[in-house]
Design goal:
Elements lengths: L18 H19 L9 E5 L14 E5 H4 L12
Antiparallel strand pairs: 1-2
């Protein structure tokens, strides 16, 4: 959901302002820049840079831990047959 005004703190969720969220966002941006420099993704191509081992599970932003996947595949969680998350 787009925010009304990024400078208006009332419309910007509190979590996005935490140091933890800022560091995670910086790592994701770094991974995207690395893959753009390698020529594997481009702006607006509908692809995401995927961390094979998630940052939340101790993964790093190194070339061996990155993969390019369609955005539709990267922006969901694996589910059980009853639609609960694995």
């Amino acid at each position: 959901m787009p925010y009304k005004d990024m400078n208006d703190r009332d419309t910007y969720p509190a979590y996005d302002q935490t140091e933890k969220a800022k560091k995670a966002r910086a790592e994701r941006n770094k991974a995207r820049r690395q893959m753009m420099a390698a020529g594997k993704v481009q702006k607006g191509d509908g692809k995401d840079v995927h961390h094979k081992t998630p940052l939340s599970k101790g993964g790093k932003t190194s070339p061996g831990n990155l993969a390019v996947v369609p955005a539709s595949k990267n922006r969901t969680f694996k589910r059980n047959k009853d639609h609960s998350m694995k």
